[in-house]
Amino acid sequence: MIPHYKGTVPYISTSEMIEVDRIMIEEYSIDLTRMMENAGINLAILVNRLYLRTNPLGKKVVVVAGSGGNGGGALVAARRLHNWGADINIVLSSKPEKFKEVTRQQYEILMKMGITCSDSIDNDADVIIDGLIGYSIKENPEGRAKELIEGINSSGIPVVSLDTPSGLNLMDGTPGEPTVKAKATLTLALPKIGLFKHKASKYVGDIYLADISVPPELYKKIGIDDHSVRKIFSAGTVVKINKVIVFSK
């Protein structure tokens, strides 16, 4: 079971999350690789418990990965689930040489492990992990990303999105055309405001929150009460949260 945290949870904007990432790296020396590993292990835990029933042996998981941080987190989850016995198929949005360095490193690890990479989504999978596009999107997905989102939505397979369903604008909750329709979204650090907008509700599914090791003291630097953050992950590094905002800064 994933614990359900029913208390108050602060929300965060995308610009504030960018600042959190900056402070993590520059002031706390918690780099992108560490954050990515934390995101990926929590994603693997959630997928395993929700859709593989904690019995991943032989279960089929499609991991759709983009070139940025979300793609890297999804690839970490792929490695973990493979280690636990799942049958992993990776689908990429672009050539690996176009990936950000830390994401490319995660891809190269998987290739050394002999994990399969293909061009299309396996329609008999048990679950799809969406790590295609992160919180930086401002326009409708195009090209390969659009094609993959449409393939995900037409597959009929349950989807777990990392941080946000790909295509969703996390500033105001506006869904792009197209946007992934997730059964569950694992957002990172603190939930982003756009996830709670009414127009986003049919895309995000159930909302879960993952601890990526942001020090609570850091949040004080952007005006968030650190005491409200400390209790959230006391029951586990992944928690389910309410879909209604009950706390604001």
Please characterize this protein's 3D structure:
This protein has 249 residues and is of the alpha/beta class. The chain has one domain: YjeF N-terminal domain (Rossmann fold, 3-Layer(aba) Sandwich). Helices cover 35% and strands 16% of the residues. The chain contains eight helices and nine strands. A nine-stranded mixed β-sheet has the order 1-9-8-7-6-5-2-3-4. Helix 2 crosses helix 3 and helix 3 packs parallel to helix 4. The two termini are 30 Å apart.
Fold topology:
Layout: E1 4-5, H1 14-26, H2 32-51, E2 60-65, H3 69-83, E3 87-92, H4 101-112, E4 116-118, E5 127-131, H5 143-155, E6 159-162, E7 184-188, H6 201-204, E8 206-210, H7 216-219, H8 226-230, E9 238-241
Helix pairs in contact: 2-3, 3-4
CATH topology: Rossmann fold
Beta-strand share of residues:
15-25%
Helicity range: 25-40%
Number of helices: 8
Spatial extent as radius of gyration: 17 Å
Mean pLDDT: 93
The CATH homologous superfamily is called YjeF N-terminal domain
Sheet with most strands: strand arrangement: 1-9-8-7-6-5-2-3-4
Number of domains: 1
Summarize the structure.
The chain has 249 residues and is α/β, with parallel strands linked by helices. Helix content is 35%, strand content 16%.
